[in-house]
Fold:
Amino acid sequence: QSSIRQQLLEVFSEADGEFVSGQTISEKLGCSRTAIWKHMEDLRREGYELEAVRRLGYRIAKKPDKVTNNEISLGLQTEVIGRHIHYEETVDSTQKIAARLAFEGAPEGTVVVAEEQTAGRGRLSRIWHSPKGTGVWMSIILRPAIPVQQAPQLTLLAAVSVAQAIEQVTGLSVGIKWPNDILIGGKKAVGILTELQADPDQVNAVIIGIGVNVNQQREHFAEEILPIATSLAIEAGTAFPRASLMQAVFLQLEKLYKEYLTNGFGIIKLLWESYAISIGREITARTVTSTIVGTAKGITEEGVLLLEDRDGRIHAIHSADIEI
Ligand code: BT5
Structure:
């Protein structure tokens, strides 16, 4: 069933906005005009605008700006990441669903994505605002065979992938603030949250939650984050199809993840440092227990931030909020 619908979308996609006759479609798909008509009705219900003109046939006049399976799968170039999509309109948090699926054995590369989150979360049980249809709110399941202490590397790897994807899709230039924020013009456009399912010595699943503000305008932002948040659309002055951005993230992530599994963190560390906006600057790191002011020296092979305080002592920061 769903593969016929997928093929139907592919036929339209190949036609690139031109009309395709009912005859051609039914020949290509090897099913009756009535069967095809039913699938077209399904597409309409999903928000596709299908135009029908006598003697010319059908064309897609407008695709929905949704992040459904169809939209993501069509033209996806990856082998693993994004090959299993779990899509929902509204969820509390995609992290929660992904955690359940990972626990139940979902394969590597499984992605949970929603149009809206009602209880999107950041680190330390902070809130992640996720208004409907405006951003990419997704969680990706990876299953690397690595020891637990290396898991933070994957947050940094994910940040680099998203940074690269955003630059490709939008042409904007972005910076990364350790460990997990992507900033544009000093404001936060992306937050990343990595959670683990692990035995004492071995990771079973890493769940990478990525929130990208894509098409929000200023009025979409809650008052408390308005001064610190931005979106790709605000920065670029134009909207972007969210599914295309997701495809770009998946492709970059897959490339870097393969590099990571074969050659380790080396190249990813260099790439991360090339995006880092705090290295060499004086910053304030607030951990759960203390506040340290110092110069950010760089990150270790494990992805831990090194901070040199005014007395020349080096502090290894595993988890903190950074003020620049
Ligand atoms: C983060 O936490 O930045 C990680 C956010 C991860 C969100 C994704 S969305 C998909 C997946 N499902 C989830 O439930 N979560 C993940 P943290 O570094 O703790 O930053 C949180 C802070 O960012 C908040 O306290 C706000 O100040 C700010 N903030 C909240 N929503 C924002 C938004 N949409 N844009 C920019 N800043 C925001």
Q: What stands out?
A: The chain has three domains: 2-62, 69-275, 282-323.
